[in-house]
Amino acid sequence: MNSTTTVIDDARFQQFLGQAVTDMGAAMNGVLVVIGAELGLWKALAGAGPLTSAEIAERTGVLERYVREWASAQAASGYLEYEPGGKTFTLPAEHALVFADEDSPVYLLGGYHIVSSAFKDRKRITERFRKGEGFGWHEHDPELFGGTEQFFRPGYRAHLVAEWIPALEGVEAKLTAGAKVADVGCGHGASTMILAEAYPASTFHGFDYHGASIKHAGRIAESIPNAHFDVAGAKEFAGGPYDLVCFFDCLHDMGDPVGAMAHVREMLDEDGTVMLVEPYAGGSLAENLNPVGRIYYAASTLICTPSSLDQEVGLGLGAQAGEDRLAEVARAAGFTRFRRATETPFNLILEARP
After folding, report:
1. Distance of CA 117 to CAs 104, 197, 303, Å?
2. Is pTM, for the whole model, over 0.85?
3. Which one of 6, 129, 162, 239 has the fewest CB atoms closer than 10 angstroms to its CB?
4. Fold annotation for 151-353
5. What CATH fold (topology level) applies to the domain 10-99?
6. Mean pLDDT over residues 43-52, rounded?
7. pLDDT tens-digit readout, 190-201
8. Residues 6+ apart with CB under 8 A from 116
């Protein structure tokens, strides 16, 4: 009888155990981050300086005993600073940008709602893994839809008009003069509305196959006359020719991205442009083994890849497809020019032209 003995590296074991415990605390505290936003606790702390749990409770109308425990968890997480002498909690200005300021480009509460929705969908997604089946976007808990809008909107608001559009060849001038734009896979329409308000001479059409999202977008955009929303898939939308077609963080979710881009090619003006906004990724797994890649691979496993596998073709690009793979998709669809126009730590902004 053969036997093997595994030698445990104690230092490595202790380091990994520490990481696992830290991650468990982060997962548990993520629920409290969302609760804090819903109860107004983060905003009550923002700019207020040191506050006792009683003072936070008075400002928010929440039972002090709950506030005390919540604030203690945030202090243990490093999200609040605690001063033992006065038993006070402080939200640093830098942390307030992340949790309390909805206009901040780094406001992350939407991401926590996405995480929350994933936990709600866990059992059903696990079963699809087991059966080898997809899980459509429309099947997710509705918290995902609002969380996605809330998560992406700050970055779009900070970068889309100021940096991304100017990085495209000749597009800003067209939008200023008056152009026709399609926003494919628009979801709740945050990107569509940001562009429409920035370029009033142009007309913007948001398309998504998810009827509930289009209904929400239409309701929000009632006061924006040059933004319109219709239910249509990426291979079905009409109304061309368009001067600009946009895909915001969604092409990799599609079952047939080549077919979608081929349809866009037919809908595009001869001198038109496609803007792909995709999660930042290097060309290999080794390049993406970092905190941002960790989030994107997890989201891809739970949301993006199952969504693609639920559709025809089911290519399953994944959220970390990267520039080279996306260029292959564009070329297969008939585009001859493809380049990286600009980037952020979280996004690749890619330009495709006929």
Report:
1. 23, 30, 10
2. yes
3. 6
4. Rossmann fold (3.40.50)
5. Arc Repressor Mutant, subunit A (1.10.10)
6. 98
7. 999 999 999 999
8. 30, 31, 34, 143, 147
